[in-house]
């Protein structure tokens, strides 16, 4: 009976996680697979290929396969400077289930992940000094039985751009082992990506007429995001929620005589009109002197081509 249960579990696991003799209900086209390869490269590069670019054109066999608006790809505005300044310490998690070791400017993270049907994964990830993943190894077990090992090996150039991605799946029966390779060549405004499915060329375009990131936040959510940016002393981030006119005044708010430590919302009202939204809030501001004071905040928010933006802001006790 126990053997029968184990066979059933292994069968379910194969359907969910491993290779199986049953035909898949559908298979990606070669073009789609190449596009997936491209975004595997971008993800490995922490999407820094998108920095200061407005759109991406994917070209396969000299024909345009797909065009992507990069300004709005993530649904929020990426802080590229923050990403460029990351180190492996950025990816160090405080949870006790994670173990860390350090060697030759690399950080190795290990932990065990438990799932349904007795599935256990032993995961090891190695980061370089700038927080890019050099390799990742995941050993999969069902109960006490070893099932497979999934391996990703990334090779980078001196600019931390991935040049080669090797993906392997290893089994106890070595005849079942699989391996795929993605090769990458960088040009000035394009990336050539090749795999067993062919070659895709990704061209990055800068459009001087682009309006950039389009915020999908509501007026109230815009006000809240602005408040949190001010509370974290991030004037550059706060400016993202302002019109050009208001952005010039943001620094004055950040310099409220004493350094702001945090800001919290206490109460407020929203008044909609044909032309704008008037928001009248009470903020509680904590300063570095440990003083906490309440301020009246009056915001005028208007609709712009790139979303709702704060056009006027008045803060007073």
Folded structure, characterized:
The protein is of the alpha+beta class and 317 residues long. 20% of the residues lie in helices and 43% in strands. The strands form 2 sheets. Strands 2-1-11-10-9-8-7-6-5-4-3 form an 11-stranded antiparallel sheet, covered by helices on one side. A hairpin with a 2-residue loop joins strand 14 (292-304) and strand 15. The longest helix has 16 residues, at 2-17. It is globular.
What is this structure, in a nutshell?
With 317 residues, this protein is α+β, with helices and mostly antiparallel strands.
Provide the fold topology:
Blueprint: H1 2-17, H2 30-44, E1 55-60, E2 63-69, H3 80-84, E3 99-103, E4 106-114, E5 119-127, E6 133-142, E7 145-156, E8 162-170, E9 178-186, E10 190-195, E11 198-205, H4 219-231, H5 235-239, H6 244-247, H7 250-254, E12 260-272, E13 277-287, E14 292-304, E15 307-316
Antiparallel strand pairs: 1-2, 1-11, 3-4, 4-5, 5-6, 6-7, 7-8, 8-9, 9-10, 10-11, 12-13, 13-14, 14-15
Supply the key terms:
alpha+beta, 317 residues, eleven-stranded antiparallel sheet, 7 helices, globular, disordered N terminus, single chain, four-stranded antiparallel sheet
């Amino acid at each position: 009976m126990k053997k029968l249960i184990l066979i059933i579990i292994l069968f379910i696991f194969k359907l969910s996680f491993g290779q199986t003799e049953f035909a898949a209900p559908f298979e990606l086209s070669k073009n789609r697979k190449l596009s997936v390869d491209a975004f595997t490269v971008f993800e490995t590069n922490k999407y820094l290929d998108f920095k200061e670019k407005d759109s991406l054109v994917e070209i396969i066999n000299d024909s345009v396969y797909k065009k992507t608006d990069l300004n709005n790809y993530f649904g929020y505005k990426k802080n590229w400077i923050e990403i460029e300044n990351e180190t492996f310490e950025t990816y160090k998690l405080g949870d006790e289930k994670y173990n860390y070791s350090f060697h030759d400017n690399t950080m190795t993270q290990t932990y065990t992940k438990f799932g349904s049907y007795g599935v256990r994964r032993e995961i090891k990830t190695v980061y370089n000094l700038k927080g890019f993943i050099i390799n990742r190894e995941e050993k999969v077990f069902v109960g006490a039985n070893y099932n497979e090992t999934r391996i990703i090996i990334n090779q980078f150039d001196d600019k931390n751009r991935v040049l080669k991605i090797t993906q392997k799946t290893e089994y106890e029966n070595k005849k079942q082992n699989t391996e795929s390779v993605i090769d990458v060549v960088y040009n000035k405004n394009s990336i050539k990506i090749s795999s067993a499915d062919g070659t895709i060329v990704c061209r990055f375009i800068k459009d001087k007429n682009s309006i950039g990131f389009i915020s999908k936040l509501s007026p109230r959510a815009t006000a809240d995001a602005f408040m949190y940016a001010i509370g974290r002393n991030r004037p550059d981030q706060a400016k993202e929620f302002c019109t050009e006119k208001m952005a010039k005044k943001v620094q004055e708010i950040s310099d409220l005589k004493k350094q702001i430590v945090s800001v919290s919302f206490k109460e407020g009202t929203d008044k909609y009109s044909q032309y704008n939204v008037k928001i009248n809030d009470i903020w509680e501001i904590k300063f570095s002197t440990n003083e906490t004071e309440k301020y009246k905040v009056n915001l005028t928010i208007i609709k712009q081509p790139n979303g709702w933006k704060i056009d006027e802001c008045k803060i007073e006790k």
